[in-house]
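Inputs:
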Amino acid sequence: MLYKVMDKNVYQDFIKALISNYEFIGPARKDRSVHDFVPIKNISELDTNYMRTTIPPAKKLLFYPTEKLVNYEVGKSIDVKPVVESKERILFGINAWDINGMNFLDELFTTDFIDENYISKRKNLMVIGMDSQPTETNFSPSMGADYAKSGFDIYLTELKDKYFIRIGTARGNEIIQKYAEVRNATAEDFKDYDKYLDDYRMKFKLNVDIKNFYDNFELIYNNEEFWKKVAKDCYSCGSCNLVCPTCFCFNIKDDMELNLKEGNKIREWDSCMIPEYGLVAGGHNFRPNKENRLKQRYRCKLKTFIDKFGKYSCVGCGRCIETCLAKINIAEDINSVKREVSV
Amino acid sequence: MVLKTKNENKNSIYVPDIARISRIEKLSPTEKLFNIAFEDEEKQNNFKFLPGQFIELTIFGLGEAPFCLASNPNNREFFELCVRNAGNVSSALHRMEEGSKIGIRGPFGKGYFPFEKMRNHNVLLIAGGLGLVPLMSLIKYIMQHREDYREIMIVYGAVNPDSILFKNDIGYWSNRSDISICISVDNPDDKWTGEIGVCTKLIPRVNFPPEDTYVVVCGPPVMYKYVIVELEKKNFKPENIYLSLERRMECGVGKCNHCHIGNKLVCVDGPVFSLWEIINLKEAI
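Outputs:
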């Protein structure tokens, strides 16, 4: 990690240079309350002062809702080829918890087997992070995800009259050297940064009591009444999965093109909340009811990956809380697990 | 983090290899046995698997599904799958003819039946219905290396006499003195002279000493609970009991997450687990 500082008046030129030299994806205003990460052609379209994005930016660029994995031609012989897409892009303005969500996907798609379809896109994605303002449903400090330690090439933090820059990769350093005028961060800069971080953390209002969840969950797991209450209003629609920065479940489908000569193996997002998720041939369903499915979603987000990667797979972004039609609230539910056990 | 890269094989993990069905045998009204070999001879020669592992079978243009390997791992000329006509892919496979081409990915699964540890021990194999299929690979291996193992017993439950699988193998083994087979059917016909009822009922009769016996179990999800209760009564140790679990496995490589049970992925960590590994894993059994 290198620590640099850039003057505010250099910023505009730096961004303009990136926009003209790269495929540049950044936040743009969609309507009054929602931003979306889209290709930016002109700096005037860019609006880094955002609060909400519906689809997590990294997932949008790296793990498509539907994606061709394999293409084949069926004739006398069958010719099978992998479909791997990869192009150099800059993802600009992604915040810390979404970077942490992406770090989770990085780890997932490189554990046990390497998923070329994800990783080829990831390797060519230059990530420039920036803090954004948390919504009232954001509890990322509780999940340890309000600060990004890795996963970015460059992280810009806007201070009063300057940008504090953390450079995470050699690739990031090259870009900085090429397109921006920077100086080494001094003790004074670090002090300003420290002050900024303290103030920034104060903006997160929602806390969850996740500390003993790992063990408490085991006790609450068999409490049917509790889960009935929690999942009472769930429509099993899967909206929570679609907006989650770390949800990655997918189906693999085979499909023929209309010419009936070519076919594809396609992956498309699946949702652990819909009834078919646990269904096997022969008709047995391993998770037949919604209590079961919501419970397992919480286990996946809050416990499973503590064992596997040593971290939660929930980054506390609060998107699922805002998106849920039934107002199911993961933050409240974590706290009620604690209440239920400690009473 | 450092992003790992795969150098030696540029192929994507989702690309199947082309294989050919060389022989089809009807085993029961709903099950067929398929002999399959890769088109590429080198691929076939290098195809090594362990008893209990599975493959993902693609029917091009239609879909992909996981199946357990049923043949002796030492047989390197082809491998066998025993498939019930139950889902999209399996019913399409049942409609296929000898010589048809399919796609195969695998073998998958780190969890297999521990045939090395079982050496110099008794082995009790308990199968319910289609659960005999994954065990066949282990049984055939053991029978080929029979002198390495002590007492072998198969407890097999089927719905009715018609649905008994691998009748030829079972008939052959029944005439041998170095393996005992108990079969029980739920719905007997007029000619049935054997045991009647669920196979769990046969477990109390097993007299293998628990300290040097390995138990392997495979059957429908509902069977495990009852079998485990019976095995515990007999004092078999949870670390010596191995179970093959069924889940929906779309990708086989630990990515699609359909088969996860808590911190375990059936496709990567299983499909065979010792009872100890999953003893308090909610939803596993």
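Remarks. Chain A touches chain B through 65 residues (CB under 8 Å). The mean pLDDT of chain A is 95.
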